[in-house]
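input
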Amino acid sequence: MISRNSSCFIYLVLIIIIISCSKPEINEPVSTSTNIDGISIPEGFDFKTYRAVNINIHDNTPYVMYDIYAYSENRYSIGFQTFENQVGEIETEEVFKNDVMNKLIFSGVPENGILEQLVNVPTFCDKIYIRRNENLNFSSSIQSIDNNQINYSYSAPSEKIMQKTDIVNDYLYCVNGS
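output
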């Protein structure tokens, strides 16, 4: 004799098997046709997302490295920041960011004083950011792209010769917990 609980269990299993074997109803996808003739595209519109730019760098310094970044002056909002100002008041300001350092195009070292490279630059960038690294002494420059070409020549800054009238005062301040 089958107990009442076990017979309920058997009926429940049979119902689940029957339901799981049924064919689901699938709706036919509705085809939406778009008419490309209805799109208004201005005459002379360029569909390109990048352009080829020839970069020429002249630098006779040995052991120098250049990093080239795509540069755009457009900033975008990353949200709001709440902080306490110097007076002690709570302020909320919108924070903007410019992702220059996240758009590395290439890195290179001049050979015989010349670094030439043909790179693809996004069409929205009309300038590039050049970072020069000479033994961890960094300098930078922003150059405009003219006729899909950039010519950059590095010239070392002139060093000022110290005169006897130039007085240098160095002060050392020390603070400890005592």
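quick obs: The chain has a mean pLDDT of 81.
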